[in-house]
Amino acid sequence: MKKIITALCLCCILSLGSLVTVFATGDSNIDSGGGSLDNGTATNVWSPGMDGVRVSVVRASDYKVVTTSVDITNKSPASTLYHFGKVSKLEYNSGDALSPVQGGYSYIQPTESMPTIISEYGSNNITAIKSYFTDEQVLRSISEYVGMDYDILIGGDYKLLLEPIGYYTFEGVFMAATATETALYDELLGGLVKSRLIDFSHKNLPLSMFLETSDLGYPAWTGSTIDRVTDSEIISSLGLGIVRFTELPEDVEVEVYDYEYRVDTEVITSVYVKGGQSDPDDDTTVYFTIDGTRYSVSNVYYPSGDGQIVWVKWTTPSEPQEMVIDVSVSGPGDVDSATITCNIIDLDENPPPNPVADDRNDDFSYESVPNREEVLETSWTIWDPWWQEYWVDNGYWKTKRWTDSEGNSHSSKSWVSKWEDEGWWGAIC
């Protein structure tokens, strides 16, 4: 089966770890970019640290936002600022229009402070951002903010959409906007935002988060991470991160047994490996360290709930001794290790009895032969995985906007297909 990991698909100019829960895990799929900023003017300026993140819960099956989005920030922006409501990037790309509002702006200051999201110089704080948005306690807080049960949120049917927010002054007006809202606003104003705040609005803000792999209909960003970008690039591909959830892989376990071997003999030592499913996407490798030599057995496959015997052939030393074989296993979950004790003996030092024809044992007796079912044959199977294709169109909507000769704004949408194989590993035993 092809494993899907929880992915935090972000890129940060400066800043986004590992979720440790008993059920779900957060993993990162993220890069970073950006660059230095011009100082701006008193009427058009962004101050470092004035940032936040808009969080939306999205149903994975149909890409619909299912709760009210929330803005999270460490700062205390005035509630009277200008903003565009709590509209997500998905909703804008589905046709929602910008709706400027003054006042009534709401936000949440988290108990655990967020790391810096947008950097003045494009420094990389990505590890801290990843840690924050995949931390169990932070996710529990987010579930309270949006009004969704935590276990439902991480159950695998929903994803978190993250969008960087900048708090900045434009033409003397203090406002809050995501990267997507800033680009849409710039389009409506014919490029005025870009002309005033280009390094912030069209570089560090949109490049503070982007996808490393496509998801929710948005493509992975493959463009420059240090240069200024366009409105259309921001609207279609930048200023977003995604957190996905999946169950933790079951840990790989190894079962070992102790052995007694003769000296100077070619022998086979085996172990039993189990835990999770091992397939060509997440295969298991077993390592045996015997008398200073390391042997490895790779491509060990077995289905979920089962296991596999793994063995190595080697030659025992010529002198009697007690040996320890170290065994380690790497696979889909955490690694495991064990030791095998081997007693190497010399039969010449312990010769067997040599009976003669007139030896007697008058105390000998025997039990009656039990009436057991006769076993005429036996069999075993080897799990041989094969790939079952399942192609899914994970494309995205591309919106084209233009202004006619009379100054009226228009838009049209077209679907850009991106076919991906989301199949799984099956097998015939």
Structural summary, described in words:
The chain is mainly β. A hairpin with a 4-residue loop joins strand 4 (45-59) and strand 5. The chain contains seven helices and 26 strands. Strands 4, 5, 6, 9, 10 and 11 form a six-stranded antiparallel β-sheet that branches. The protein has a five-stranded mixed β-sheet with strand order 14-20-19-16-17, with no helix packed on it. Strands 13-15-18 form a three-stranded antiparallel β-sheet, with no helix packed on it. Helices cover 14% and strands 35% of the residues. The protein has three domains: 7-247, no CATH class; 253-349, Immunoglobulins (Immunoglobulin-like, Sandwich); 386-427, no CATH class. The chain has helices at 89-93, 126-133, 136-146, 150-153, 179-188, 192-204, 231-237; strands at residues 7-11, 24-25, 27-31, 45-59, 64-65, 70-73, 82-83, 101-102, 158-170, 173-178, 241-243, 246-247, 253-255, 259-262, 266-274, 284-290, 293-300, 307-315, 321-330, 336-345, 385-388, 391-393, 396-403, 409-416, 419-421, 424-427. The two termini are 15 Å apart.
